[in-house]
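re: ur question from yesterday

yeah so i grabbed the chain u mentioned. its 224 aa long if i counted rite. heres the sequnce exactly as i have it in my notes:
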Amino acid sequence: MDVKTQEEQNESIRQRMLDVKEMRVGECPSDSPWIRPTRIYYQHDGVQRDWDVVRAHDGVSIIVFNTTRKKLVLVRQFRPAFFYTYLPEKRGSVDLQRYPPTLGVTLELCAGIIDKDKPLVEIARDELKEECGYDAPAEAFKLITTFRYTSTSVCKDTLFYVEVTDEMHTLPGGGSASEGELIEVVELSVPEVKKYIDSEEVQSPPSFLYGVTWFLINKPEHYS
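ran it thru and got these structure tokens back, copy pasting raw so excuse formatting
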């Protein structure tokens, strides 16, 4: 896909991404397919304790670097959970004038949940094609590490690194239409990414910050 076509697609996705109406906050159903809340009871240092946790799907994340244009390939999308961090803790309708949907738009690594019985590298390949439009071979993916989220929300994330070229950009990307995904493909130079992570507040999850930091530490040949 050429740059002009990608920009046109991004503009269309951006407009649809922010078309959020009639939002309300309600109770989470007990049969949610995405999260499973539970309470852990235990004795610690002679004291009886308990801890509430929410188990979410494990996932994969991919640091993507385009060697043709010397840019990191990232994704931007509307995240209701991220948006919720700006809202007061109450049920009912959300005032979208006071809390505009732009508050919920995040910049992230290409990523996805593990919901298929496939090797993790193949799931990473699928996400790269689906979200960013790049078709890279499995051997191009380098396994970096697997880490776990702690505190209340718990899941496991496996991080990969892959280098791509313009010639690999053969698919439209933008996410899975059947799953209702609206994903903007964002390519940033290393100086642009450095400026972003040096901001006072970033619209990104910890996995993004970890992935970008790993790249800056381990791949200086791409920007020095």
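noticed a couple things. DSSP finds five helices and twelve strands in the chain. also The two ends are 28 Å apart (CA to CA).
anyway ttyl
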